[in-house]
Write a structure and sequence with these properties.
Length: 340
């Protein structure tokens, strides 16, 4: 049981029996504790094999720290991402909020989803990411829609690599529309691959996180991993593959229909996009918006949505997205008042 400390602010003291695990919990130069302090607004001091926690959220922080320690006891690593996920999931999950955080990592506790790949294990860090990951695992066609930095493409690539490793699919196909983001880049010299590589770089980045570079190079040579512009999908039937369409907001309605009808036997598709970042010419409808309206309610298709609270990049990114969303809402309200 945690003992309440005599202090001017609410506080708890937590004892941990294994000093080796406590060292991992504290992190290099106290980095893990510093992250908990920053995210939860508490102060943490180490006293021997105990941590003293002060602040209004001391009780919540205690459950987080105990959960992270239980994670270490189970042989799972604690890093910045795991800490962020633990805190976010506690805030999102009502059942967990009132229970013991240790249950998150204990058999029979709150469901944990891990996607294992050659280089790393990916874990969802928010409730929306958990729902999306489960949808990718369970459905043949899954949409992930929301702002940048919410992990839509990253999680889809992780699931694709995992299913390829286990033999559930024979190849991975990644595609996106070759649309410039508000800039005219002009003529690009080089081979076909060299021309399209700048558009595909985010997909390379994600793959490199989950597959060793030598293996990835070999798989690309063998055409077991393909990265190509959306236009190159026309006329193909994509069987026994995990196919990901990234930046789907920049696909036209005809391109989206063309892509969706490429689905072959034994294949799965993931479509990711951000409706606030359409780079299509004025007057050209986004195929992602049309797909939402046309395919809503179709059995076997899962739509998953993210917002600024799901951003897992720098904390400022969530604030920036929130500010732009608020500005868009004000503009919409002003237009409605003017009857536009």
């Amino acid at each position: 049981m945690a003992d309440t400390l005599a202090a001017p602010t609410a506080g708890v003291q937590i004892e941990f029996p294994d000093n080796r695990l406590l060292i991992d919990l504290v992190g290099p130069a106290g980095a893990h504790l510093a992250q908990v302090e920053q995210l939860m607004g508490v102060q943490i001091a180490q006293r021997g094999n105990a941590l003293a926690v002060h602040g209004e959220a001391a009780a919540e922080a205690e459950r987080v720290l105990r959960g992270l320690y239980a994670r270490l006891e189970a042989g799972r690593a604690v890093d910045m991402g795991a800490i962020d996920a633990t805190i976010r999931l506690r805030a999102d999950d009502e059942e967990t909020r009132d229970g013991d955080q240790q249950e998150m990592f204990a058999p029979g506790g709150v469901e944990q989803i891990e996607i294992r790949t050659r280089k790393k294990t990916m874990e969802p860090r928010t409730e929306a990411q958990k729902r999306y990951t489960r949808a990718l695992l369970d459905n043949e066609l899954t949409f992930g829609i929301g702002p940048a930095g919410t992990g839509k493409t990253y999680i889809a690539v992780a699931v694709a690599v995992s299913k390829f490793i286990t033999g559930e699919v024979d190849r991975i196909i990644l595609t996106r529309p070759a649309v410039e983001a508000g800039e005219k880049l002009g003529f690009l010299p080089g081979t076909q691959d060299e021309k399209v590589d700048p558009y595909m770089q985010p997909l390379y980045d994600a793959l490199n996180d989950f597959l060793p570079s030598k293996q990835l190079g070999k798989l690309r040579e063998e055409k077991k991993v393909e990265i190509a512009p959306l236009a190159f999908m026309r006329g193909r039937t994509l069987s026994n593959a995990y196919v990901i369409l990234d930046e789907a907001q920049n696909a036209t309605t005809m391109q989206m229909k063309m892509f969706l009808t490429r689905l072959g036997q034994g294949s799965r598709m993931a479509i990711t996009g951000d409706r606030s970042q359409v780079d299509l010419p004025r007057g050209v409808r986004s195929g992602l918006r049309d797909a939402e309206a046309i395919l809503a309610g179709v059995d076997g298709i899962s739509f998953n949505y993210f917002d600024a609270t799901d951003v897992v990049r720098h904390p400022l990114v969530a604030k920036i997205i929130g500010a732009y969303d608020a500005d868009d809402a004000r503009r919409e309200a002003a237009r409605a008042e003017r009857g536009e």
